[in-house]
Amino acid sequence: MPFVAIKFLTNAINSIILKSESAIDGTEKWVNVMYRNLRADMIKLDINNDDISKVIHKDARTVRNRMSGATDFTFSETILIRDKFFPKMKLEYLFKKD
What we know:
By secondary structure, the protein is mainly alpha-helical. The chain is built from six helices and two strands; from the N terminus they run αββααααα. Strand 1 (18-22) and strand 2 form a beta hairpin.
């Protein structure tokens, strides 16, 4: 992987505070990312919000609300996400609120 790509990925993972989401009209909007560790590990493993929504059986809006901190993940949702994508990680690390 070229140096520029590695640097870009490293910067993206290390500085995730805001995430760009494409709105229906094609414009960009910025939302807070509450779970920085979860988001960083999602990027490392190429997991997106759609993947999360399928596992917890919720729509994309609900997952965006959970990721931004507007609403909380339920305990059962955190278990499902951890068990499916991050089985060796602790819930406390993944779902630490920033």
